[in-house]
Design a protein that fits this description.
Helix content: 40-55%
CATH architecture of the largest domain: 3-Layer(aba) Sandwich
Number of helices: 10
Number of strands: 10
Strand order of the largest sheet: 6-7-8-3-9-10
GO cellular component, one term: plasma membrane
Shape: globular
InterPro entries: AAA+_ATPase, ABC_AA/LPS_Transport, ABC_transporter-like_ATP-bd, ABC_transporter-like_CS, BCA_ABC_TP_C, P-loop_NTPase
Bound molecules: adenosine-5'-triphosphate
Organism: Falsigemmobacter faecalis
Pfam families: ABC_tran, BCA_ABC_TP_C
CATH superfamily of the largest domain: P-loop containing nucleotide triphosphate hydrolases
Keywords: ATP-binding, Nucleotide-binding, Transport
Length: about 270
Amino acid sequence: MSGHLLQLKNVTRTFGGITAVNDVSLHVDPGEIVSVIGPNGAGKTTLFNLTSGVMPVSSGRILINGTDLSKVPPHQFVTHGIGRTFQNLALFKHGTVVENLLVGRHWRMKTSVLDAVLHFGRARREEIEARERVEEIIEFLEIEAIRDHVVGTLSYGQQKRVELGRALATDPKILLLDEIVAGMNQEETEDIARFILDIRAELGIAILLIEHDMHLVMDISDRVHALNFGTTLTEGRPEEVRSHPKVIEAYLGARAARGGGSGAVAAAGSGGL
Ligand SMILES: Nc1ncnc2c1ncn2[C@@H]1O[C@H](COP(=O)(O)OP(=O)(O)OP(=O)(O)O)[C@@H](O)[C@H]1O
């Protein structure tokens, strides 16, 4: 058994002729905040999709607390403690904040519909627990004022916070955050940074994040894993990775290929890469 909370061992994913993720190994220990960085197309989202069970690996292994997830059906990754947010909001826009958070909770509840009929008492207890947990998360994320608002009417920053809440409602051991601050203003970004640190400190949840915002990466990460063309460039403490020649080259190469700077490159540049 490995001592790591999450461990990816030589993970590869191909799409036809494209190797989106190529022999990547990484780990996250309890209480750690680890970031995955890399220019557009580096394989970050694919790596997240593999880690959260959205798609299977072509080869390699993913372990959580030493348990190999290769035989675990995708929808059960969540019951093994892997929670995530998505790059494009994946909330139920017509539902309220509370309803969206309850959906997250239900993803990990044990009671099936048949169980609910046969064991009404247990189902009811779980439902009460779910509502209590959702209320705790609402308080934690300071979204009491919008708890009964329809999600589609909320600002983008608020919706992102609800998505964070829905992922927390699954009671993850590790939370995968896919570009959580993309499209946010500075104030919203600072709020999210604070929540990420609080999630680790107060809830004891480890975090793996994909992030283009280099200020955020440098501020909150314990370790950074840099990818390019699906392959690990380097891994280490934020300042080591930022100044690593291969990382600088990858970002400059991406900028040159694009004929300027945007997205990852601009963010990386502004972060002093
Ligand atoms: N479903 C798919 N089918 C075919 N190719 C894919 C698929 N998903 C990703 N790819 C390819 O895999 C490579 C890695 O893509 P991925 O989206 O993982 O990169 P990324 O680092 O997340 O990029 P970005 O920063 O733009 O989100 C790209 O070349 C992409 O075109």
